[in-house]
Structures are given as structure tokens and as C-alpha cells.
Amino acid sequence: MSILVGLFGLPAASNRAPASPDECSSRSVRGAREGVVEHRVRRPGGFVVKQDFGAFVTQGLVTDDDGPVAVVVGDPLAGGADRDAGLAAMRRSWLAGADEPWREARGTFAAVFWDPQRARVTLVADAMGLRPLYYAAVDGLLWVSSSLRVLEELPGLRKTLCPRGAGEVYRLGHNLADRTPYAEIFRVEGGHSVTWERGEISRRCYFAWDAIAQDGRDAATHAERLAAVFKEAIGLRCRDDRSVVAHLSGGLDTRVVGVTLRGRGMDVSTYGFGVTGSKEDVYAAGFAQHIGIDHQFFPMVSAGSVDWAAITAETLLRSPPKVAPSRPHSLWTGDNGSFVMGLVHLSERLLELARAGNDGALVDAYLSNTPFLARGIRPELHPQFDGARAGIEHELSRWSPDDPAKRIYLFYLLNEARHILDAHFEGIDLHQLDLHVPFCDAAFIAEFLRGPLDAALGHRLYHVWMQHLDARTAEIAWQTYPGHEPCPLDKGEFAEQWTDTDEFRMARRARALRCVGAVMEREGFPHQVFSRTTLRFASWLFRSRLRELGYLFRALAPLRYQLNVARGRLSQDDPAV
């Protein structure tokens, strides 16, 4: 686990700095700091602070006395070397002017390269952009952090609400491209680097996903090659570990991670959460026993809208694994597996629309499940906040792959899928768990794109591929998505994990009521954006159980928070899409 914060371009007089290393340090880690190792590097013209809990063993910092600095969170997995050796090699190449030395990095990471002599800083996100890295270039200074929360809390950085960016979060639950809810703050996109040199910003794409072409392979060869690359991705992340901790659900994504780790002779301890007696419980337990994994299951009301990392961290303390993990702050997950391999969000219809170039209908289909919530926001501001359509259309137009259907796949990959772990990384200072996410290995996704998309729809390719990993994967029943390739062993005697139980509905309503309180709090109510009369009526309908309007307040709560961060200031400029 690690968080980095930096401020560059400072004048010689330190008393003029809008933030200090001490202030950045105090904002980075909330609560107890036991076990935290802090690294600080200060040079004329700036500083960088890194807080580390040791998930990746090495410090992730390479520098010389008064010389250039390279710092990373996560692990680039570059060249098979250990993290610091790989980082040092990239720093040397960067200083020598080599073109994009991080192109071969396969891991989940965010890195900062700083040459104080040239007043030059390069920010790099991993190929998918899964590990966040945020920056703001304001008044000749460059603010950088791997946590948006830290930049939100630093008072020296002025924040203005960006209606388009905030509107994307309001409607979609996440931002598109490099936008955030704030006009001053941007996120480094997946496969991109951003260079700030003497106050000027330039951006480069170093990993062109749409340049990966199909090579005509047959389905059997495709599955076999994917299995080999996935095993390689697992091996790279294992380093020298002999015992690990992982999530294990009743589905396939965590299962293939667990069985591949077990196949390497690892001691694997797994944790599962959900409804007792559901497929999530029964199928995970059966599979763990089948392959010799020590598995613990913990009942929960529901799997929806919970902080998995916090729950896992608390559970590890309360019920530690029988075999201590080689790296206690590391956790293996199957996140994004059903997207990358199962195409859970795609359909034949969407691929047809993308191939036909009918982007209007394609965007309509995408937005059909995310209508603009007009209630609550003042009508005159609707056009400013409802910019999701233009953003999606622009994203689709950015790519020119060999198969036009890949555009919708890349849209999901580099927008929706990359945000799936944002909450995890924002709370990483509290739960102190970092992740191994092999499904997001850059080489693995690239290998997937060398085969036809159609063959992978509905988990069809997945079911062939997983048996190339380990035949035991398909010997115990597993949970499937509705409408996708069924499990031949599933007799349907156990409840689905997604069943909307009474307990789930009660928990969901309780969360929504907390959001009502957060939105309607009287002090500092943002009248310039929200219609208080409309929201009072909506909250009365919801509290009286006359209308199910909890979704509205769950969407408005982040917007209210962002307005508070921006102190009610709205940007009047519509940023270029």
C-alpha cells in the first residue's frame, strides 16, 4: 500500500509555498500510523512525499543525492526485475530521452519522474489506468497525488466544480477521459504519460490499444495462448511469495486466480462474503475443498455497495489465515475478469452497432440504463451537467481498431472498468491492503484483443480458456451471469448471490436515508445548484415510502460533497471533451 503526493515548481523562498511536506503527509494518512514508512524527497523547486505500508516490499523510490527522482505506487512489473530495479531502469531511460520506457510495463501502477535541474516532471499511469494519478497545473505549480481525496483536502489548491465532470459522476458514477469533478484537477489516462516542463503541459499515448490487431488464430489456439499469458501474469505478481491471501466467490474470476496460484504450489488462504447458503457460499466452499484451499466465509446482508477492502482488512485481523502470507498487506482479486474475458457488458447488438458506425444508437443503448436524473438540479443548469452523451461519442471516436466493434470494448475498458477500484485506492490509507489484479495485466488484455470479440461473448471463450488453466476449475459448479453460458453442473438448488432479499432492501434503504441527510443538511446548502423545494418534496416522498427515490439521493450525495470541496464555485467554462 502506498500514497504519493508532490508539489513542483516552488519558488526558492519556502515560506511562499502553498503547501508543505508536513501538510501533505498529514493529509495522506488518516488515523493511526503504526507500520507506516514515510519517504520524503525535497529539492530546489519542489518535493514529493510517499507513505508506504510495505505491500510490495521494496520502497518504490529511486534517487541520487540532489539528483533526479523516480517514485511509484503499485508495481510496474517491468522487465521481470524487482520493483526498484525496474523503476531505476525506467528512470535512466527517461533521463536519456528514450521514448516511453514504460511501454513494456505490465502491472498496475502510477509513477512520477522528476528532474529538478530541468524543472521537468513526467507522470505515468498503467496501460489501463487502473491505479489513479491526479494532477493540477495551476499558477506555475504542479500538484500531484495518487489520491483525489488528498488534493480535495489541501487548502492551498483552489478547486472549482466542473459541471461536465461532476455531471458524469452524477449520471454514470464515474468520469470519462481525463476529467474529474473539478476544473483544475485531471487524471492521467490509461496508457498515457503527462509531462510538465517549466509550466507547460504535454500529453502522450504510450500504449495504443487500438493498434493491437487480430492475427487470424482459431479459437482453440486463442484460448491456449491466453492461458499461458495469464499464468505468466500470475507468476510475475507472485515474486518470491510462498503463501498468499485472496478473495474467493462462487463465480469464476476469483476461482481461476485461486486455482492458478494453487497450481504454482502456493499456500492459498481465501475469504468469501455474502448470503449464507447462496451459491456464493456453497460453490466457493466446495471448490476450495476440491483444490485444497483454506477458505473462510463470512455472512453479510448483501454484496451490494460495500467497502470490500475495509471488510476484508477487518476480517483478516479478526480471523487471520492459518498460514501467514508472505506479504501481509497484499490481496489477490479477480476484479474485471468478467469484463475482460466474459464481455459481461457487451452483446451482439452492441457489436453490430459499433461495426455499422451507428454511434448515436450505440450511445442510446449505453445510456438507456443511466437516465439523467433531472430532479434536484436547477433546470437552467441541466445542459451544463448533462454532457455524458458528448463525452461518450468523443471517446468512441478516439479509436480506429482493425475491427470497429473493439471501440465499444475499449470504451468500457478505459472508462468504466478502470474506475471499478477507485474507492479501494481512495481508502487505501485506512484498510492498508494493496491488490494483485492479474486480469488487468496489460499483456493479457493485449493477447485477448488478438482474437475475435464475438467468440468471447457471454463467457463462451472463458469456459474454454479456464480449462486450459487447470481442468479442476470446471469440476465444481459455479455461479453464472443471466443470459451467459450456463454452468452444466449447476442444478439451481441454491439462491443467487444477487437475490434482492428483505435484508438487502432494508440495508439499501438505510444507506439511502444517510444520503438524504447528507444532501439536505441545512448548513451551506448549495442553492445555486440544487432546488431545495424539489428535494424537500422528494425526501418527504421517500421517507413516507410513497416513492422509491433513494437512487436520486445516492446520486446527489457525491455532488453535494464536491460542491462543498469547491466552496460552491462553479466553472463557467465547458472543458474540451
In short:
With 577 residues, the protein is α+β, with helices and mostly antiparallel strands. The chain is built from 21 helices and 17 strands. The strands form four sheets. It has a six-stranded antiparallel β-sheet with strand order 2-3-1-9-8-10. The protein has a six-stranded antiparallel β-sheet with strand order 4-5-6-7-11-12, with helices on one face. It has a three-stranded parallel β-sheet with strand order 13-14-15, with helices on one face.
Task: Summarize the structure in words.
Helix content is 37%, strand content 16%. With 577 residues, it is of the alpha+beta class. Strands 2-3-1-9-8-10 form a six-stranded antiparallel β-sheet. A six-stranded antiparallel β-sheet has the order 4-5-6-7-11-12, covered by helices on one side. Helix 7 (279-291) links the parallel strand 14 and strand 15 (294-299). Helix 5 packs across helix 18 (460-469) and helix 13 (388-397) crosses helix 14. The chain starts with a strand and ends in a 12-residue tail after the last helix. The model has no long low-confidence stretch (mean pLDDT 92).
List its salient traits.
577 residues; alpha+beta; 6-stranded antiparallel sheet
Instruction: Name the average pLDDT.
Output: 92
Evaluate the radius of gyration.
24 Å
Oligomer classification: single chain
The number of helical elements comes to 21
Termini gap: 33 Å
Shape: globular
Q: Give the fraction of residues assigned to helices.
A: 25-40%
Helix and strand composition category: alpha+beta
